[in-house]
Fold these 2 entries.
Entry 1:
Amino acid sequence: MKRIGIIGAGIMGSGIAYLAALQGFEVVQYDTLEGAVTRSHAKALQRMDQAVDAGKMTAQERDLVYRRLTEAHDWNAFKDVDAIIEAVVEVLDVKIAIFQKLDAVVPAGVLLATNTSSLSITAIAQATRRPQDVLGLHFFNPAPVMKLIEIVRGEETSDVTVEKAQALAEELGKETIVVQKDTPGFVVNRVLMPLFIEAMRMLEEGVATAEDIDKGVRLGLNHPMGPLTLADFTGLDVDLHVMDYMYDEFHDDRFAAPLVLRRLVRAGHTGKKSGRGFYRYPSNK
Ligand code: NAI
């Protein structure tokens, strides 16, 4: 594979585009928001400038990688790509409309991947006349750094498509797991959300302080980061959204969002690296 089309230039689209360019792919990127792709490429350049200053990259390498990042101004730009990765907002109707457009312009047999973190791969694939070519490629944030990609099969995804995705992930320098069943939360969030929820419930019950719950998990289970800090990093609003979605789908209390989380989000504490959301909780004092 040589050329990748990326739809979306937000947090994930930007990270994936930068990663792909670093790994030698030509990247053509599209976003409906005016200036989003330009900002995404400028951010990549800024990161590379820092790498050059730190002696981790030469100025020639930086220029080469930067030239691989281009903007798509219409759908015809995706006529000659080897793979597509869609990373737009987490709204099913928006993704379906995009896959319908891709189905009309992208040659048959090209890998069509969505970076959705919760939506049904099968429902997205059915927007095309080639659901066998569609799967989930679930990157983690920040995409250039995190080692894992979850490859998620839709009901009709072919083995050949999974093999293409594995080859692409390898070229991107990532490890993969294959999620054989298209289920909410895939593997990682299915494990993570109950961990978050239990840590938050213990905080609510006054079992231990936020610091001690995190320290217990870090040192007792050898996690690099405690669950309350990690929940803050992923964004408390995002966590709540994922829990509510999984609870609606499974009707299982394992995924019921704790009140403390709902209240913090309602009060505007969305986390995102503040590291303070839960550390300010009253029982902590
Ligand atoms: P974001 O909100 O940062 O970016 C979304 C981008 O999509 C925006 O730039 C927006 O202008 C663009 N967009 C909206 N409609 C569009 C359309 N019709 N055509 C082209 N572009 C359009 O969102 P983020 O965080 O990058 O998430 C993107 C996807 O990745 C979502 O499906 C999300 O669930 C998934 N994801 C997010 C992770 C995260 O930690 N943020 C981790 C893994 C997956």
Entry 2:
Amino acid sequence: MNRQVICALDTPNLEEALATVERLKNHVNTFKIGHALTLPHGLDVLNRLRDAGAERIFLDLKFHDIPNSVALAVAEAAKRNVWMMTLHITGGPAMITAAVEEARSADDANRPLLIGVSVLTSLDQRVLSDHLGVNRTVEEHMVHLSSLAMEFDLDGVVCSAHEIKSIRHAIGNRGVIVTPGIRLPNTEAHDQVRVGDANSAIEHGADYLVIGRALTGSLDPEKTLEQFGLLSN
Ligand code: C5P
């Protein structure tokens, strides 16, 4: 079982998501879901995925609201034994603290990991500088926000393969790094800009790799994991 791989289930089709879990459950125990599955099916989808074989669920809803609203959202997710969830670091210290306090009030077995999102991979330097008025490079801004996340006790951060080294350097071993945009060398990047391969991501300091289409679109996911160097028994 590979415990570093998180398979992203980016589909509104519950049957398709369940089939993917069934197909991968002997090799991957963690699955990531977002708005596409939870809006049409509600959080009951968590139990359906567990029944199909998902041991751990990463609820990627990227919370960003006033502290009270985010704390309520974290409480609902924690009640349902979500293993990991995301929130935007730009929600600020009060929002982060409210989320952390809520997560910590869950008993140990149900305590979710709270992971901070800094700069979305869909934003580039031009948008950051010209539209959002940020006078730092994307990487500098990610390092800045990731350090803030650690200062206010989040459990880790999301970043692409390109920023792992500098973020790991900045946060040391205080938090986990979750890296999406993982591809086999010389394969389709789809809509991702900052992609990287699994082994160098791990080498540079990623703890978890989010892999979506490369796995869910594979006719032979076992072989794909082997090609990634991620097939373990
Ligand atoms: O199919 P692919 O491997 O590109 O899927 C990557 C997954 O990681 C998607 O679910 C996407 O929403 C998520 N993600 C991302 N970039 C981030 C945060 C999350 O690609 N910065």
